[in-house]
Amino acid sequence: MRTLEDLVMFAARRAADLMRQDGAVAPVAILATLSEPHTATVVALDFSSDEAKALSVEAVKQLARKTRSAVVFVSETWYTEIHASGTAGRVRPAESPDRKEAIFVSGFSPSGAVAAIIRVERGPDGTPIPGEPELFSGRVETWMNPWPDQEPVH
User: Fold this and answer.
1) Which residues fall within 8 angstroms of residue 150, CB to CB, at 6 or more apart?
2) pLDDT band at residue 150 under the 50/70/90 scheme
3) pTM of the predicted structure, to 2 decimals
4) Half-sphere exposure for 110 (CA within 13 Å, toward CB)
5) What SS3 class is residue 75?
6) Residue from 100, 109, 115 nearest 11 by CA
7) Which residues contact 25 (CB under 8 A, 6 or more apart)?
8) What is the pLDDT of residue 88?
């Protein structure tokens, strides 16, 4: 991988492939170097509860900061569209009747952040049909970012 954007798009394409093949994507973090020699470590994340999710993500964030590694988080997610008023509803997307399914891939390095979304539809038999990865434009603001004060990469 040459850039954080390359790493995020590679992870997004692999996640879409896994969704097509297995029907699901397990939450993982990929810690990687963006310069030679390239190394990568995949870490399974525990998303069984909000507490487990927070603890496993915090451990990866600390490791990324300590090693100055890029980190890419991959997980299935629910999202809702922003209302015309500019605000999302007061209900968490997972609890909204208007929720939509996606795979979210967010990448962070000491020098920037980039994310991609893969929207997922369901076939008549419930089979997931992931779309193509789309780069997310704008600032990537999430509690998962080890370096939250940075600007977008693209």
Assistant:
1) 108, 110, 111, 112, 113
2) low
3) 0.86
4) 11
5) strand
6) 115
7) 15, 18, 19, 74, 75, 76, 103
8) 52
Q: What is the pLDDT of residue 20?
A: 95
Using an 8 Å Cβ cutoff, are 67 and 35 in contact?
no
For residue 133, what are the contacts with CB-CB under 8 A and spacing of at least 6? 9, 12, 13, 16, 105, 116, 117, 118
Residue 16 in tokens: 């879409």
Find where tokens 């000491």 sit.
Answer: 110
More confident residue, 82 or 152: 82
Reply yes or no: is the peptide bond before residue 37 cis, omega within 30 of 0.
yes
Please tell me the predicted confidence (pLDDT) of residue 154: 47
* CA proximity to 106, closest of 149, 78, 51, 146: 146
Average pLDDT for the chain: 87
Taking the C-alpha atoms of residue 135 and residue 107, their distance in angstroms, rounded to an integer, is: 11
Token duo for residue 121: 């539809």
Q: Contact 69/147 with Cβ under 8 angstroms?
A: no
> What is the per-residue pLDDT across 11-43, written as a single tens digit (0 to 9) for each?
999 999 999 999 999 999 999 988 888 888 999
